[in-house]
Amino acid sequence: MSGSLAGGVVVALGNFDGVHLGHTAVVRRAVEEGRRQGVGSVAVTFDPHPRAVLRPGSEPKLLTVPDVRDVLLLACGVSEVRTIRFDRELSEKRPWEFVRDVLVGEQEAWAVVVGENFRFGYRASGDFEGLRRYMRELGGEAYAVPIYALGTDVSSTRIRELLAEGEVREAAQLLGRPYLLRGRVVEGDGRGLSIGFPTANILADPRSLLPGRGVYAGHVILNGEYHAACTNVGVAPTFDRRESKVEAHLLGFDGDLYREVVDVTFEERLRPEMRFEGVRQLKEQIARDVEAARKLVGGNA
Asked: Which residues contact 33 (CB under 8 A, 6 or more apart)?
């Protein structure tokens, strides 16, 4: 076994949904250890979310879809992002079997870095102390990154709670960047254009978490270019729409976005969703929203 470890890598292991400050601390620790030992470093995550297999329907909404997550992980310095397929067979592996068969056997882990509260194996019965013991028995090592090293509760659960409440600025402090939603621009109902504020109707991955209903200042990112935007998330109660949508008005932009894949950032919540008595009142409020967004994120109203 020691022979296989000799050519191994340092593995940063976790779900990494959101790639928040706690996750980046784990990944960067793995990168540092790899450089110190003269070996490569990789990020290893799971798909689907374990709860989707163990308790279908209970899995949380995603903070980052896989392609966005992978880009963020690679930006931390690892050379590769690997995905372990989570299924019933994997969930029934004892902690020792998981370390031996998956981490060392399949991933060729020389060392493993996790958050100190990481659990693994059958019924999450494995903890960091077990991981370190098993890795050492196999000739390797394990390292834990303290979850409170940043002085606050940095967790995907807390970030989801903040986003659901529309507290995007607070969520950004835990993510280390504004919350971002990726989606394709699809045909809308045309109401925005009819009242003088054309919007891009953005269809996000149904697994993604939408921020709480309301109006936000942020940006729409298209092909690497940032465009200031005023974005509405909600059901447009003035028009009695039932389905919640994401509609972004780009400030000073007159190009065609239809069918483009864009990223929308949510940087400041301007107000909650509101019902207006008529179109005139709605137009007046949108004009105020756009001006408020322009002051916060720039762009031409």
From this structure: 10, 41, 111, 113, 143
